[in-house]
Design brief:
Length: 473
């Protein structure tokens, strides 16, 4: 049977999967940030000065007869041109050139914002899910619903599609994601007579036993708030939303504070290390010395764990532990760290063709396999195909077919209500700064409360209207 996502066989107008609409429209997002953009010198990212001018999508351009459409894709994926070349060989009418840029917050976004402000952004750009609202604030992205993107919605994981969808449009094509699970060392767990924990309470009990053999079940990074955010998301937190003409925030809901209290206790009991971060040189040294028994992290962590010296055949993967309220499990089966989109930029003269390439790259078997083989992308954004190499048992992971056994299910058990917000990077920096103060009488619970107040202030400093959820202040 022919691959229905082959570029030579476009779909025949498949109906869009019904989605719970977000409360946020692009127009409302822009209006909420209008005050911050006034004067022509707003800064939408911490450390990234963005002129207040906005880009306006030009009319699509039809090339001269016999000339192909030429697209540029700016991304930090390695060897992306090899992926483009697979497409280029099949579609001589639409040719794609990949241009490497640094990772988003390592300089790539600064380049994109500067290019957009000057009216010279590429046709496509790699933009993380969490950064979509920041690009929308300066009108830098194309609403792809204008070009029939709805017909492709049912090809994508529903939670990921929701993260690029706003009431009046779709502002990116999901490119990859990072569903989470528990990587663990069976031999170290067997030394304490344990199996992988099914719940976070069981995880805490196991972490205490593992400490008795001189190992840690995991680390807690006080310098990177993305891990804590993922745990709270799994517990059911939804920090930001839009209510009428303003943003609302609630980082002190039950799910978030319970998560903070749980890790307060884990840190205080010495169950996790805060001395180093996951996949740092000290972590690799400890892992090679049998001092790391596990790690709850994203699907893309497999390649990093494979770098542990002497680790071949010693690791396996289990589902992410579940949160509990008494005897009942709560929240969701998994969470996510990372994930990006292929977004069509507002300056593109060929937005429809750019969209077609992005859909092929992220849903066709040829595109997904090429991205895995050449660019090492994270988890496939389509539930129908995870990639040929990810359907095989792994020698490193003890012969386990862990992608199909674990991550396929984890990818479908995400929090569908989570919504990203402007100033995400700055918000994470504020939260991490507060986490670093952990110690003595100062807790992670205190840090979350303090960070929420500082984030509200940061919003207002940018001219964004925001209130604590349920508050009229």
């Amino acid at each position: 049977m022919a691959d229905p996502t082959d570029p030579a066989a476009p779909p025949g107008g498949a109906a869009r999967t019904a989605q719970a609409p977000s409360a946020l429209t692009r127009r409302r997002l822009l209006s909420l940030g209008a005050a911050g953009l006034a004067g022509g010198a707003a800064s939408l990212l911490s450390g990234c000065a963005t002129p207040g001018t906005t880009s306006v999508n030009t009319q699509p351009t039809i090339p001269a007869a016999g000339e192909p459409v030429r697209l540029q894709y700016w991304a930090w994926l390695k060897d992306l041109q090899k992926v483009c070349d697979v497409w280029n060989a099949q579609r001589p009418d639409i040719q794609v050139e990949a241009v490497w840029i640094p990772g988003g917050n390592s300089g790539g976004y600064q380049k994109l914002f500067a290019a957009s402000a000057a009216g010279g952004s590429p046709d496509l750009a790699q933009v993380e899910f969490r950064s979509i609202p920041e690009f929308m604030l300066v009108n830098a992205l194309v609403d792809l619903s204008r070009y029939g993107v709805d017909q492709y919605a049912d090809r994508y994981n529903k939670a990921l599609w929701q993260q690029v969808s706003y009431v009046d449009g779709v502002y990116g094509i999901p490119q990859d994601s990072g569903p989470m699970a528990l990587y663990y060392r069976p031999d170290l767990l067997q030394r304490v007579g344990a199996e992988p924990p099914a719940t976070w309470d069981e995880w805490a009990e196991l972490a205490a036993e593992v400490r008795k053999i001189g190992a840690y079940l995991d680390v807690f990074a006080v310098s990177d708030a993305s891990g804590f955010c993922a745990y709270a998301t799994q517990a059911g937190a939804t920090w930001f939303a839009v209510d009428g003409d303003h943003w609302t925030v609630n980082m002190t809901d039950e799910a978030t504070l319970n998560t903070a209290a749980f890790f307060d206790k884990a840190i205080d009991r010495g169950l996790v290390s805060t001395a180093f971060t996951l996949f740092s040189p000290p972590w690799y040294a400890a892992a090679a010395n049998n001092q790391i028994a596990g790690a709850v992290t994203a699907s893309w962590g497999d390649a990093l764990i494979e770098s542990v010296s002497g680790g071949a055949g010693k690791w396996k993967v289990a589902p992410m532990p579940l949160w509990q309220n008494g005897s009942q499990t709560t929240g969701y089966g998994s969470s996510f760290i990372g994930g990006s989109t292929a977004a069509v930029m507002a300056d593109s003269k060929h937005p429809k063709e750019a969209m077609e390439f992005a859909v092929w790259m992220t849903t066709s078997r040829a595109g997904i396999d090429a991205m895995i083989a050449n660019s090492g992308i994270g988890w496939s954004p389509t539930d129908s195909y995870i990639g040929a190499t990810r359907q095989q048992p792994s020698e490193f992971f003890s012969g386990q077919n862990y992608n199909e056994d674990v991550f396929v299910k984890m990818a479908t058990e995400q929090n569908p209500d989570w919504q990203w917000w402007p100033l995400t990077t700055q918000s994470f920096n504020i939260l991490a700064d507060a986490f670093r103060r952990k110690g003595g009488s100062y807790t992670l619970v205190d840090a979350v409360r303090d960070a929420e107040g500082q984030i509200i202030e940061a919003f207002r400093n940018k001219g964004l209207s925001i209130e604590r959820r349920g508050s009229s202040s």
